[in-house]
Specification:
The protein has no helices and 25 strands. The chain is mainly beta and about 210 residues long. It has one domain. A seven-stranded antiparallel sheet has the order 17-19-20-22-23-24-25, with no helix packed on it. A hairpin with a 3-residue loop joins β12 and β13.
Length: about 210
């Protein structure tokens, strides 16, 4: 499965990645008025590491994209049938930093973004193999709304905040002991849309946000 995001009046790159228990393909985008670099994730049934979502039945570590003309750096999650941790992007010229959720077949915790120049910070939920939901949000001088995610050993869904002073919409993540999908925030002052990644003990797909 793949997802895509478009960015700005100068340059746009979209990404997609699909993953299986035997093979892995991944993509990731960074966007800039000046330059764009994208990274990737790899997955194996034993172990995998990549600059971006990597998935493994044992352990995975990954990091991800940078964005220019304002200066954005973001890193993203690895997933494992035992434990997962992930972090996410910061954005400049307005100043935004965001971090995101780790997922495990036993427990999940996630946190989310703060945004500047308007000023918004939002954080989110933790999950256990039974069920958990948490939300948090702070507002900005324009408008901010944040939602939540809950996770159980069967299924979980979560959403997150949008931020203003121009326009921002942010999506969500769900987590399950059999499958995981997560999405993340977009930030504005021009226009940003961000997509997602899902992860499963047999398959995983992830995408990431664009910044403008």
């Amino acid at each position: 499965s793949s997802t895509i995001d478009s960015v700005c009046s100068a340059a746009i790159s979209s990404t997609t990645d699909s993953v299986c228990s035997a093979a892995v393909s991944s993509t990731t985008d960074s966007v800039c008025f000046a330059a764009v670099s994208s990274t990737t994730d790899c997955v194996c049934s034993a172990a995998a590491s990549s600059t971006t979502d990597s998935v493994c039945s044992a352990a995975v570590s990954s990091t991800t994209h940078s964005v220019c003309s304002a200066a954005v750096s973001s890193t993203t999650h690895s997933v494992c049938s035992a434990a997962v941790s992930s972090t996410t992007d910061s954005v400049c010229s307005a100043a935004v930093s965001s971090t995101t959720h780790s997922v495990c077949s036993a427990a999940v915790s996630s946190t989310t973004h703060s945004v500047c120049s308007a000023a918004v910070s939002s954080t989110t939920d933790s999950v256990c193999s039974a069920a958990a939901s948490s939300t948090t949000e702070s507002d900005c001088s324009a408008a901010v709304s944040s939602t939540t995610d809950s996770v159980c050993s069967v299924a979980a869904s979560s959403t997150t905040d949008s931020v203003c002073s121009a326009a921002v919409s942010s999506t969500t993540d769900s987590v399950c002991s059999a499958a995981v999908s997560s999405t993340t925030d977009s930030v504005c002052s021009a226009a940003v849309s961000s997509t997602t990644d899902s992860v499963c003990s047999a398959a995983a797909s992830s995408t990431t946000d664009s910044v403008c």
